[in-house]
Amino acid sequence: MSATLLAIAFIAVITLCYIAACAAVPFRDCPRCDGMGHDIKTDRKGRMKRGKDCRHCKATGKRIRLGRHLYNLWLGIHRDGTR
């Protein structure tokens, strides 16, 4: 097998795995707050305290995957166009 065909097959397998991940688990942990939904701060004595809510995930700790978001957009456009 040539290197080009091997690269195409590898990219196809990676793409199919990502599509399966988006279908099985559409939400992932928020990278900004590490899935906690808020920041962790320390006071002057060094004790851990809850910080502000994460604005990126709206304090849920989960964010939708990019592939799932694109699929949802496509699905909405398709539904609107077929009515």
Distance between the termini: 47 Å
Rg of Cα set: 20 Å
Strand residue percentage: 15-25%
Give the helix/strand class.
Answer: alpha+beta
Query: How many helical elements?
Result: 2
Q: What share of residues is helical?
A: 40-55%
Major sheet: order of its strands? 1-4
Mean pLDDT: 91
Low-confidence stretches: none
Net shape: flat
Number of strands: 4
The biggest sheet, with number of strands, parallel, antiparallel or mixed sense and barrel status, is: 2 strands, antiparallel
Question: SSE string, helix = H, strand = E?
Answer: HEEEEH
Notes on the protein architecture:
The N and C termini lie far apart (47 Å). The chain is flat and about 65 Å long. The chain contains two helices and four strands. It is of the alpha+beta class and 83 residues long.
Kindly list the characteristics that best describe this protein.
83 residues; alpha+beta; two-stranded antiparallel ribbon; two-stranded antiparallel sheet; 4 strands; 20% strand
Topology, please?
Layout: H1 3-24, E1 27-29, E2 38-42, E3 48-53, E4 62-64, H2 66-81
Antiparallel strand pairs: 1-4, 2-3
Summarize the structure.
By secondary structure, this protein is α+β, with helices and mostly antiparallel strands.
